[in-house]
Amino acid sequence: MNLLQLQAFREVMLTGSVTEAAKNIGRTQPAISALIASLEEGLGYDLFERRGGRLHPIPEAQFLLSESASILDHLNSLRHTMQGVGAIKAGHLSIACMPVHAENLLPYLIAQFVKNRRDVSISLISQSSERVYERIASQRFDIGFAEVASESPLVDADVLTTETVCAVPAGDPLASKKLITPKDLDRRDIVSFLKTHFIVKRLVEIFDKEGRQLNIRFEVQNAASQYAFVEEGLACSIMSLLSAQNYRMTRRHNDRIEFIPFSPKIDYPFAILTPAHKPLSHLARAFVDVLKNEATALLSGGGYCHIGDVRGK
């Protein structure tokens, strides 16, 4: 018994005619008759009585029609679903994101992406960049957005690189400067990332080289946690331009911090991550394009961003 036999059988049962059944499913009358005959042969008995050139179903045929209806309806539903998946109107995405952008940027982009896609569902989790890499490498998630933390043969990374800026309190004398240097921050209180973060390591190198004192008074895990210390005039900070844009997007009163270019330049790479050995769905590809375009647009106004490509390295 196969689906084509069941389809021909149902059409004959519903129309009462081999001729009409053939028209409905686009086959010839002999083909429909052959399908019915092969179905009966497989069952071991006739489903119809042949009288006066017409087919008259026996009670067992009514039972088969009832039982096969759910199979054929499910197949039809599956076909429509797969057409929707191919047209990126249906499906599920699992996304892992570094904390600073899991609260605003990613939810905003997801909301815009699914607005006209009622059959698309999304899972979004907030994780450290290292954990985001791990989840993508394990193929448990479709897309990741994180700082460039490592290189893995299990992960493809579309890398975007931006420069860092110095966040200073709006009323601070440094707020009027066009460029901030280690000399300006010598002995000033700084809020920054944990000691293991690459920005902190780079700042230590720069300040030591220039003979300046780096005074990190507050250590926090992500850039969003640094905003309050700067707003209250307690410290300055060095963060990515994307984190600066995040501040402008998320704060109602976003004029309490001035973001000023920092020299010497510190590159801040972050990446859109996908599993290296798992083909992306049409839906995932579409969202990756949205994420890349939006991140680039946020940064391009300042002329800081350029796009690189690291594949499974």
The ordered H/E elements are HHHEEHEHHEHEEHEHEHEHEEHEE
Shape: rod-shaped
Q: What's the CATH architecture of the domain at 160-267?
A: 3-Layer(aba) Sandwich
% residues in beta strands = 15-25%
Helix content: 40-55%
List how many beta strands DSSP finds. 13
In CATH, the topology of the domain at 160-267 is named D-Maltodextrin-Binding Protein, domain 2
Instruction: Supply the helix-strand structural class.
Output: alpha+beta
Report the span from N to C terminus. 50 Å
The low-confidence parts are 302-313
Largest sheet descriptor: 9 strands, mixed
CATH superfamily caption of the domain at 160-267: Periplasmic binding protein-like II
Rg from alpha-carbon coordinates: 31 Å
- Can you give the mean pLDDT? 86
The CATH class of the domain at 160-267, by name, is Alpha Beta
Number of helices: 12
Brief characterization of the structure:
This protein is 44% helix and 24% strand.
What topology does this entry show?
Layout: H1 3-15, H2 18-25, H3 29-43, E1 48-51, E2 54-57, H4 59-86, E3 90-97, H5 99-102, H6 105-114, E4 119-126, H7 129-137, E5 143-147, E6 155-169, H8 182-185, E7 189-192, H9 198-209, E8 215-219, H10 227-231, E9 237-240, H11 241-250, E10 257-261, E11 267-275, H12 282-300, E12 306-307, E13 310-311
Parallel strand pairs: 3-4, 3-5, 7-8
Antiparallel strand pairs: 1-2, 5-11, 6-9, 6-10, 6-11, 6-12, 6-13
Helix pairs in contact: 1-2, 1-3, 1-4, 2-3, 6-12
